[in-house]
Amino acid sequence: MKQSKGKQALMILAGIALLAVVIGTLPHMIGLGLGGLLAFYAISKFIRSTKVIAKIGFGLLAAVGIGLALSNIWAVFGIAAALALYIGYMRMKMERVNPNDLFSRRRRSNASHFEADWKDLDQKRF
């Protein structure tokens, strides 16, 4: 199924816009990841520690990590844009495959030759 040139141009423009959003929010994604790692590390050490001073220190470190992660909440838009880019790319890639040609060899039973059908699908997809 072939797309019209107008729809294809809109898809390219949408892809460029989503890529700009991903690149623009990349520092926020890094900050969110570092904040999450810091909070995870501090909470795991907080649970394992037995001394009160260590618990206070790791509790403060966990609060800093959670604050760092929450201050970079804009990364959610970047993650959503990256997910939309990935889904769009996979749909564009699957449009090149003709569904009628996927299983050229017809068999009596659909369940009896799953491995051969899977190989057909895997070879024709790429």
From TrEMBL:
Transmembrane segments: 12-44, 56-89
Protein name from the UniProt record: Flagellar basal body rod protein
Domain of life from the UniProt record: Bacteria
The species this protein was found in: Exiguobacterium oxidotolerans
Keyword line: Membrane, Transmembrane, Transmembrane helix
